[in-house]
Design goal:
alpha+beta; Lipocalin; eight-stranded antiparallel barrel; 10 strands; about 15% helix; elongated
Amino acid sequence: MRILIVSCLLLLAFSISAQRYKVSKSDVSFFSEAPLENIEAHNTESAGIFDAEKGEMAFSIPINKFKFEKSLMQEHFNEKYMESDKFPKATFKGKLVGYSKEKSSQNVKASGLLFIHGIEKKVTIEGTITSKGNKLTMDAKFPVAIADYNIQRPQLLWENIAEIIEVTVHFDFEKND
């Protein structure tokens, strides 16, 4: 009887863990189109998990890992705008609405809480999810209004930074065995 119970528990644990995925590769970027200068940065050091059974996900993006074309932009971004010493990461925790683990490719909406610069906002982000074997890919592009997250535009350089930043995310997942 004990062997049967232990076997059932192991089978249950295996089936639960078989539906969990972790980020194996990521690219989070943002683009600011402004009259004087466009600004773009990429971050490939994000972490995340996705529970395909429940459709739940969580991501963490280290702010100081965004790479810019110009080192001075990177310094200003971390020190003056994002205050990455005080607010070291951005996070998202949410759930896919209308997600079916049975489909290999689908448009989805992620509804949840986006935390940036000490401010948490409820958001809905549209994107796509594709599955192939033990791998999943998530892609999304969405706007972020810097005022919503109390990110200040400098008075003298207000034409350098857009009020709305376009954020693009690409996550490759592998099963978390």
